[in-house]
DNA sequence: TAGTGGTCTAGACCACAAG
DNA sequence: TTGTGGTCTAGACCACTAA
C-alpha cells in the first residue's frame, strides 16, 4: 500500500491513505487510530514520517491527538465551507451549481488612490479593471469588479478573463497565490446593482471586498463583489488557535 | 537566547524568537532568514528542531520557503482579522473598543428540531438560551442568541454569562474548543431587532450563525447574531491550500 | 558547483493517561 | 507498569536554484 520507491513522498501517501479510510468509513468518528509506532512498524517507515502524515490530518481537522492516550477520528464538519481560497467558479461547483459570466467591461485604467494603496503600486499606474456579472445556473448571483496591476499581471486579455483567471496566474505566469483578506458587510442595492442583479429596490446584498496576495505577500488583486442576499450565503470554517 | 534546559520546548523558543525579530523589524519583509543549517549550528540544536519552528511560522504566514533558495520574511497582512475563534469581547478589543452586555433573557428551554439537530442532541432535551444585546463603547452593535446543551455545559448561570462564557468552558469545565463553522448573510432588520439595535426601519444587518465544536468535534454551541451593518464589518483571512 | 529546503531514518528520553 | 503522543538528535540523500 505504501510505495517507498515512488516519487510521491511517503508521508503524503500515508496521509491520503488514512484520509481515505476516514472518508470511506473504515475509520469512524471517535475511533482510535493505530499508534504512531504501529504505523511505523507496519509500513517499515520511521515514526517521524508517520508523525508528519498525521500532523497534516490534525491541521485539517480530520483527527485530533490526546496526549498519553492516542489519536482519534474527529467528527465530520457540517457543511463543507470554502476550503481556503476559491474562485467563484469553484465556489459554485462546490454548491452544486454551474457558474457562468457576463462581461460588462474589460479595460485598463490609471489606479485610483484606493486601488493603488490596496495593490501597493503608484497612483495612476496602469490597472486592469474587469467587471462581470457572475451567474449560477443562469441566474445572476453577483456583480464583481476586479482590479489587477497591469505591470504585475502582463498579457491579460478578454479571452483569459472569460476562462479562468487563477489558472492563468498560477500556471501561465507561474505565480503562487498565498492568502487573501476579506471584508464582508451588509448593504442595500444601489441603482446599478438593482438592474444588473435583477432584484427589487432596497434588496439586501452581501458586499465582499477581497484582497489576494502572492506567497511572498505581494498584493495581486482587489475584488469588490455584491452578492444577492436571497441567493448567497458565505460559509467559513475557523480552526482553533 | 535558547535555553535547552527550559521546560519550554526548543522549537517554540526559536519560533517566538524569530517572530519577535520580524515584529521588531530586525528581520524585514523580503529578508532571507539564516538557513536551517545555520540556525542548527548556531544554537547547537538539530535541524529537524529548527524545521519544526519554521514550519509553524510558515503556517501562520510570517515567512515562506522557496525550494533550493531559502526562507524569506513575508509581507505583513493588512488589517488584523479575527485570529481564529474569538469571542465578541475579544473581537471588540481587537478593534479598539470596549464591549459590554445587556442581558435580555437567560432560560432553559426544550430543544427545537433545528437546535437539537445543530447541537446533535435529542429534540426537547434541555438547552440554555441566552439572549443579549452586545454593545461596543456603549452603543448597540449586535443582538446575539446562544444555545448550549444543558447536559453538556452544566452549571451555567447568569453570573457566568455576564463575565466570560469561553473562560468558563475552557477553564472550569476543561473542554477544549476546536473549530467553528459560520454562515454569514445579509438581511433587513425585523421589528424586534429594529428596536433593540436602535436603528431605522429597513436597515441592513449582517446575520451570522456560528456553530462551535470541541476538539473532538462534539457540537458545543449555536449562536445566532444580527450585527448592525453601519457599525460592523466582518474581516477574515484565508490561507492558501 | 555550492547551498538551500524536502524528505527520511533509527534511535532516544520525557510527561501523561489508564489499568 | 505499559503504551501513548511530544520533543529531540545526528546524521543522510534528493531536487532545486543560482552563481
Automatic annotation (TrEMBL), chains A, B:
Keyword Transcription regulation included in the entry's annotation: yes
Entry keyword annotation includes Nucleotidyltransferase: no
Pfam families: GntR, UTRA
GO MF, one example: DNA-binding transcription factor activity
Name listed for the protein in its UniProt record: Phosphonate metabolism transcriptional regulator PhnF
Domain of life: Bacteria
Biological process, per Gene Ontology: negative regulation of DNA-templated transcription
InterPro entries: Bact_HTH_transcr_reg, Chorismate_lyase_/UTRA_dom_sf, Tscrpt_reg_HTH_GntR, UTRA, WH-like_DNA-bd_sf, WH_DNA-bd_sf
Database matches in PROSITE patterns: HTH_GNTR
Residue stretches making up the HTH gntR-type domain: 8-76
Keywords in alphabetical order: DNA-binding, Transcription, Transcription regulation
Amino acid at each position: 500500500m505504501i510505495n517507498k520507491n515512488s516519487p510521491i513522498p511517503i508521508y503524503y501517501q500515508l496521509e491520503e491513505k488514512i484520509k481515505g479510510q476516514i472518508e470511506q468509513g473504515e475509520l469512524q468518528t471517535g475511533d482510535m487510530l493505530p499508534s504512531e509506532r504501529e504505523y511505523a512498524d507496519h509500513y517499515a517507515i520511521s515514526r517521524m514520517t508517520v508523525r508528519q502524515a498525521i500532523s497534516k490530518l490534525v491541521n485539517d481537522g480530520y483527527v485530533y491527538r490526546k496526549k498519553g492516550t492516542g489519536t482519534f477520528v474527529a467528527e465530520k464538519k457540517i457543511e463543507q465551507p470554502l476550503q481556503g481560497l476559491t474562485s467563484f467558479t469553484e465556489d459554485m461547483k462546490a454548491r452544486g451549481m454551474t457558474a457562468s459570466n457576463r462581461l460588462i467591461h474589460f479595460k485598463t485604467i490609471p489606479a485610483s488612490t484606493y486601488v493603488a494603496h490596496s495593490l501597493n503600486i503608484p497612483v495612476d499606474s496602469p490597472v486592469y479593471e474587469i467587471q462581470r456579472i457572475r451567474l449560477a445556473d443562469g441566474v445572476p448571483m453577483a456583480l464583481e469588479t476586479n482590479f489587477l496591476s497591469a505591470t504585475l499581471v502582463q498579457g491579460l486579455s478578454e479571452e483569459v478573463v472569460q476562462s479562468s483567471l487563477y489558472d492563468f496566474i498560477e500556471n501561465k505566469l507561474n505565480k503562487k497565490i498565498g492568502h487573501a483578506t476579506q471584508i464582508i458587510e451588509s448593504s442595500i442595492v444601489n441603482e446599478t446593482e438593482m438592474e444588473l442583479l435583477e432584484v427589487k429596490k432596497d434588496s439586501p446584498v452581501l458586499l465582499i471586498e477581497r484582497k489576494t496576495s502572492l506567497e511572498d505577500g505581494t498584493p495581486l488583486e482587489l475584488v469588490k463583489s455584491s452578492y444577492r442576499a436571497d441567493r448567497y450565503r458565505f460559509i467559513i470554517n475557523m480552526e482553533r488557535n
